[in-house]
What does this fold into?
Amino acid sequence: MVRFAAVCLAVMASDLHGQELEPRTYANTPVGLNFLIAGYGHLEGGVAIDPALPIENTQVEVHSAAFAYVRSLDFLGKSAKFDVVLPYAWASVSATALGQLRERDVSGLADPRARFSVNLYGAPALSLEDFKNYQQDTIIGASLEVTAPGGQYDAGKLLNLGTNRWSVKPEVGISKNLGPVTLELIGGVRFYTDNDDFFGGKVREQDPIYSMRGHLIYSFSHGIWAALDGTFYTGGQTTVDGIKRNNRLENTRLGATLALPITRYNSVKLYFSTGVSTRAGTNFDAAGIVWQYRFGGGL
It folds into this structure.
C-alpha cells in the first residue's frame, strides 16, 4: 500500500505541476495593474505506473477551484509580475490493489504557490498611456515559482491534496511576435525538498522534473486570442526510505486556450488539454474556465 500512496501523491502534486500549459507568461503588461482571478477546473483520467506493482485500474477525478492575485511591477526598468495562487480541490481515486478495490474521497486546500517573473529583454516597464504605442518584437523573460506545504495532508491516507514539502521552479522563456501570431518557448526545472512524513513516517525524495513547453498564439481583433499549447516533461523519479521507484516521468501533453474579453475590466479564459504519451504518472483530460477582473494602473 505504500507504493499505491506514492502513486496518488504523484497524481495530485509533482506530475500535475509538470503538465502546466499557460500561454503568455512573459507578455508585456502596463505597470500598476492588479488582477483578481477565480477559476474552476476538472480533470479525469488514469495513472500509468510500474507494471511490476500489483495495482491496476487506477482512476482519478479532481474538481478544483483557484483564487489568485497578480500585480504588474516596474523592476529596474523592466516589466515584471508577482502572483500568488490559493487552490482548493475535491478529489477521488479508485484502484484495484492486491485484488481489492481501494477508494478515497478528499477535499481541502492544495499547496499554495507564489511566482515572480521579469522580462529581461524586449518589454520595458510602461505606464498604461505609454503602453498604447508599444509593439512587441522579441521578449526574453525569467521567473521563479515557490510552492509551500500548506495543503491538506495526512500521512496515513492514500490520497492527499498537499505534498508536505516545498518546491522551487526557475524558468526561462522567449516570445517572438510575427504579426498576429506569437510564438513562445519556455523551459524550466522544478526542485523538491524531501517529505519526511510520507505514509507512516517514511522519507520520500524526488528528482527534479525538467519541462519544455511551447505555444502558438493568434491574436484576433477586440482583444480576443487563441493558443495551441504543448508540453514535454521528464524526470521526477522518487525514492522512499532509500529504495528507488520505477516511476521516472517522460510525458507529453497538448492543449488549447481561448481568451474572451467581456468588458474593459473583465475577461474569461477557457482551456482544455489531453495526454498524448505517458510513461508514468497521470494521463488525463483537463478542462476549465477562468474569470479575470483587472483594476488600477490608470484604467
Remarks:
- The chain is about 5% helix and 60% strand.
